[in-house]
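User: Can you fold this complex?
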Amino acid sequence: MTDTVSVTTVTVPSPIDAVILRAEHLTRRYGDAIALRDVSLSLTPGDCVALLGPNGAGKTTLIRVLGTSLRPSQGTLTVGGIDALRHPARARSQLGLVGHQTLLYGDLSVHENLQLYGRLYGVPELPARITEVLDTVGLGDHRDALVRTLSRGMQQRAAVARAILHQPRVLLLDEPETGLDDASQTALRELLREWADGGRAVLVSSHRLEWVQEMVNRAIVLREGELVDELQLRSPSAPMLAARYRELVGATLAAR
Amino acid sequence: MATIRQEMALPSATSGRSSALTTVLMATTVLLTIVSLGMIVFYAPMERVQGVVQRIYYFHVPMAWVAYLAFLVVLVASVMYLWKRNMKWDRVARASVEVGVVFTTMVLITGMLWGKPIWNTYWTWDARLTSTLVLWFIYVAYIMLRSYTPDRERAARLGAVLGIVGFIDVPIIHFSVTWWRTLHPAAVVAPTLERSTPNAPPQTVITLLVCLLTMTLVYATFMAYRTGLERLRDENRELEQLAGR
Amino acid sequence: MPPFVRQVLALLEKDLRLELRTKDALSAMLVFAFLVLVTFNFALDLRPELMSTVGPGVLWIAVVFGATLGLGRTFAAERDQGTLEGLLIAPVDRSVLYVAKFLTNLMFMVILELVSLPLFVLLFNVPVQPLPVIGTLVLGAIGLSAVGVLFSAVAGNTRAREVMLPVLMFPVIVPILIGVVQAMGVAIGNESARDMPWISLLIAFDAIYLATGAIVFEYVLEE
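Assistant: Here's the predicted assembly.
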């Protein structure tokens, strides 16, 4: 009785000045194929949003466009009030990205990688900040290890460290839990939840509903490049989310 | 539909005005070509030392002029594309490279055809011919670059960069090659008009100017048809995309 | 420290550190240049009396081939490892990337030249005035690096990138080729070459292409 769950399919408009990231009508073409079709979304402080969808739906493309590593063919992107297409450098200092690749130099140590990125991002008091970040992700003992000698799980943690080093207001992650053991996955989830609670926004794409549904307050579903649904989750509920998702994804599979 | 047409800068499918203009251009060019050929054969004076062969000059020089003009057009179109991101500028750049490389090849060939009967050698590392040869290589590099880049937008962008970077080199190449040649004069120098006759008679100059004009119009006609063809291709591609292929 | 300088230094340090650790680029460049020098000996009849006219060309070709090897991998390695994207999503101006890569490659080329010159003198017994020759080689390297880094990024985006880099570079660097060889000829004692302002040509080329490269680079890396 107490477990009333409201899963509404209505997008609740956020107050304009609180929006950290606003994407409107993003379209991305690759030659003749259309990877993203008119996708709009916005993120506010405290948002922890899941990006769901079957393979090939365009999740990675969307994250890369939001992270400014890809330019959209059409549409606008505003980060912290800055037009990311016209002033990309300023917008980028507010974004952190954890993608499929670690974006770290395998032949450099964790510490050397963070030093490089810290200086590129202009992070103040870098040495202290590096220590802080390494503690947060639990890599304090491995700071001098070459990245290519680390296990996949530790490399992923190093990638997260790189992404949060400059304290971006928006953190974008593309299936970050792949390759991590259970304990690391839980730790990562807690980290992301804390991050969002600290007044920032997190967008996480994932295949693993059970992992994601316990930390997010909203879910966006992508299918064939289009945003087909946006779910507000006031209190997370695995069966409802899973059911709705299967409904949408199932529809895709049936349509093929 | 409207947005796509704007983006691709396509005119309406049957644009009466532009095809009429092209036809007029074509007609004028054909007419002028006949006139030029007539002048080259009948009007231009016979050159004493070189004889009939010298008349290649009336092809060789205008073609060289067009080869460099085409590259200048590539530069302008490249800058405009990077600035405005309108595909029509990319079509112009690409067409100009294709037409330009043809003219450049013809300059080299006519240069060789001219040299052989006069000096008994096909190729001399003459300053002008050598600079033109380097230009030829830059054109070819552009074409190769585009053919190896399947993504349309990226091909246009990289092509534009090459168009700008390549053109800046043209004067530098010219100077360096000319200086090199003055220090190391070739055993054989490519024939020119100035070397054999100190003061060119007026008929020669007039014939040359007419041929220059004709060749420029030939270039313009090729460009008109080539850009038109590319436009149709782009339009076709857009329609295919919409049809969901 | 202004951000531009701080970022360029950070990137430079990264590249040098990587090179010290892996020694990938320099070893390939040095071996290849040495190989080219020796190959020339078999391909051409390099008698001592010919060396003063032919020598500079032989040395410079060896340097260019070695340099092209290094230039080819400067962006390819970053792309293959996936680290280029990390640099691109950072608040770093594309011209910063260009300058940093330019300096890295310039450094490698100068090292290449400092090794190749004594090798050349040793193999072919050519008396040289070291300082003017090295000065000329460095000016040439600046132009090579400026053009090469730009085209390496352009070519790296394409399917046949090993072939595209030389095809793009070689026509454009013809003036450097002529300038360096002629200027070196003067340094070796070929007085007739002195008549033309080769050094000014090289300096002008270097300045023009460095400026152009820094400006157009963002258009190359845009995705």
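The CA atoms of residues 8 and 227 of chain A lie 15 Å apart. Chain A touches chain B through five residues (CB under 8 Å).
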